[in-house]
From TrEMBL:
Protein name from the UniProt record: Putative NADPH-flavin oxidoreductase
PANTHER family the UniProt entry points to: FLAVOREDOXIN, FLAVOREDOXIN-RELATED-RELATED
Keyword annotations of the record: Flavoprotein
Cofactor: FMN
Domain Flavin reductase like: 2-92
Gene3D superfamilies: Electron Transport, Fmn-binding Protein, Chain A (2.30.110.10)
Any one GO MF annotation of this record: FMN binding
Organism: Methanosarcina barkeri MS
Magnesium as UniProt keyword: no
InterPro entries the record matches: Flavin_Rdtase-like_dom (IPR002563), Flavoredoxin (IPR052174), Split_barrel_FMN-bd (IPR012349)
Family: Belongs to the flavoredoxin family.
Amino acid sequence: MHHTNEGIRENQCFSVNIPSQNMVEITDYCGIVSGKRIDKSEIFETFYGKLEKAPMIRECPVNLECRLIDILDLGGASEVFIGEIVESYAEERYLCNEIPDIEKIKPIVFSMYDNNYWGIGEHLGKAWSIGKNFAEGGNEKKAENAR
């Protein structure tokens, strides 16, 4: 079982820390070494929030503090932790009008199928807006017929 999983079970909470692209090497290092063999607690500056038991990484642009709701056992050492976000944390420099700004955060995206890290690419379109072009082009009926 993973060292982190034991802590989540014991404390009934966890954090999701979103690293930026400039943290890719140190983030990968943390995934390579086990907390059972190497103390990783000094690698980052940590802080605690409302739940007082879920360490968060100050260097990460965005931190989510979560209360454990459920654990899905996928067999072997694979588990999925389901949590309720209790609080979110981000420095002002990563926000725009008090909302996290993805261009300022520059999050790392991990691709499991090929084990690569990626950065966020180009802007593709405005949500709940770009799809209107599809509807206006008469494509709704084509989509319904394809079902």
